[in-house]
Amino acid sequence: MRKQAGFTLIELIACIVILGVIGIGTATVISLGARGFFNARNADNAGVSAQIALERIAIELRDANGGPGGAIQVTASPVSISYTTSKTELPGTRTLAFSGGAITLTPTSGGTAYTLLGGVSTCAMSSSGTGRASTLTVSFTMTDAPAGEVFRITVKPRGNTATPVNS
After folding, report:
1. pTM, entire model
2. What is the pLDDT of residues 74-127, one digit of tens each?
3. CA angle, 97 then 101 then 75, to 5°
4. How far is CA 36 from CA 41, 55, 72, 76, 140, in A?
5. Contact, 69 vs 165, CB < 8 A?
6. I need a surface site. Which of 9, 49, 63, 122 has the fewest CB within 10 A?
């Protein structure tokens, strides 16, 4: 009798099952790593975008010196701040507003709004203090940022003598 070399059908099936389990485990580890990388990248991009928008908002509100009715107008619905500025580079009435998941800036009444920051899930704008001690606060959360991460800036307008009006 001659011995034949080779694998039995049961050995081949066992090998295929073991390779399948190893393949599924490897794919799971790789997909978790890739998902973590993309989530971290999106959160980092959201943080950088938020920081740039906060800097622009600070520049805008720092030079606010009045509003359409003489005082800076802060409204809760729709969320917005309307103000004027004495800078020649930023003439007229300007409105910083939140709508449709974005914070927009509209230069001069009736002008074309442009987006400062998209992907915003919630936003609040408020004022506190009176006269020269008044401050304006803008805070928001973003969809791509880590849950609970609130971006906030508080600005004291340089030339504001009228108390901001909340409505």
Report:
1. 0.75
2. 888 889 998 887 777 767 788 899 988 999 998 876 678 889 999 999 999 998
3. 30
4. 9, 29, 43, 37, 24
5. yes
6. 9
